[in-house]
């Protein structure tokens, strides 16, 4: 395999750190402050838009033509240093993988840059493919994988894709990538055809060997 495409949140670091939960809370506060939702309605609306459109942002863009930059500034303009920090073992793992490595995330570029800096591994990646690069079409939509490999310049058959979301790994396998799901101890959420399963990112080195 010529290249490695890695998801960001809860793939590079373990689940349960609270990063996504903090982002969800910020999305709900945006829905209340900018969209007029009540505190009771906001959680339901966030999930409803996510399920129907792939991300809450995409639903808001489609239905209400919101400015994604304004949304990102609110949702991702929060402290994360209390939740994640430098990870020497992650750095050793990534440094030992001698092939191009790209982040491929449904989050914005600003969030990816901050998380990579906090983890202390930003310099080990050749690039970041963020939601802005996908025309806001998120994984696991086929358009997201097409946009990612076009931006990185790799044949999907020569790419190893790693994600903690089962549906994203399945989508990558169907697109023709070598797909790996980081299970974090969870059971598969359906068909795993073409998907390798590892318990945590630490298992990636052995898998690639």
List keywords for this structure.
alpha/beta, Rossmann fold, DNA polymerase, domain 1, six-stranded parallel β-sheet, globular
Describe the structure.
The protein has helices spanning 19-33, 41-53, 56-64, 68-75, 88-95, 109-119, 142-152, 166-175, 204-208; strands at 3-6, 101-104, 127-129, 159-163, 178-182, 195-198. The N and C termini lie close together (11 Å). The protein is globular. The protein has two domains: 3-13 and 85-208, 3-Layer(aba) Sandwich (Rossmann fold); 19-75, DNA polymerase, domain 1, CATH 1.10.150.450. α8 (166-175) links the parallel β4 (159-163) and β5. 33% of the residues are buried. A six-stranded parallel beta sheet has the order 3-2-1-4-5-6, with helices on both faces. The mean pLDDT is 95. The protein has 209 residues and is of the alpha/beta class. It is built from nine helices and six strands; from the N terminus they run βαααααβαβαβαββα. α1 (19-33) packs across α2 (41-53) and α2 packs across α3.
How is this fold's topology laid out?
Blueprint: E1 3-6, H1 19-33, H2 41-53, H3 56-64, H4 68-75, H5 88-95, E2 101-104, H6 109-119, E3 127-129, H7 142-152, E4 159-163, H8 166-175, E5 178-182, E6 195-198, H9 204-208
Parallel strand pairs: 1-2, 1-4, 2-3, 4-5, 5-6
Number of strands: 6
By secondary-structure content and strand pairing, the structural class works out as alpha/beta
Element-level helix/strand string: EHHHHHEHEHEHEEH
CATH topology of the largest domain: Rossmann fold
Low-confidence stretches: none
Percent of residues in beta strands: 5-15%
Strand sequence of the main sheet, in spatial order?
A: 3-2-1-4-5-6
Helical segment count: 9
């Amino acid at each position: 395999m010529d290249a490695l495409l890695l998801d960001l949140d809860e793939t590079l670091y373990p689940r349960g750190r609270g990063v996504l939960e903090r982002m969800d809370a910020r999305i709900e506060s945006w829905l209340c402050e900018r969209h007029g939702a009540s505190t009771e309605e906001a959680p339901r609306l966030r999930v409803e838009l996510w399920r129907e459109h792939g991300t809450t942002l995409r639903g808001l863009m489609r239905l209400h033509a919101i400015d994604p930059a304004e949304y990102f500034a609110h949702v991702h303009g929060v402290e994360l240093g209390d939740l994640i920090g430098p990870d020497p073992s992650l750095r050793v793992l990534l440094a030992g993988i001698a092939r191009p490595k790209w982040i491929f995330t449904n989050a914005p570029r600003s969030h990816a840059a901050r998380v990579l800096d906090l983890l202390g591994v930003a310099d080990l990646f050749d690039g970041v493919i963020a939601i802005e690069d996908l025309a806001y079409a998120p994984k696991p939509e086929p358009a997201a994988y097409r946009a990612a490999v076009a931006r990185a310049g790799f044949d999907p058959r020569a790419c190893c894709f790693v994600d903690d979301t089962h549906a994203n790994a399945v989508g990558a396998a169907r697109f023709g990538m070598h797909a790996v799901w980081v299970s974090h101890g969870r059971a598969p959420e359906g068909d795993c055809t073409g998907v390798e399963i590892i318990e945590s990112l630490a298992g990636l080195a052995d898998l690639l060997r």
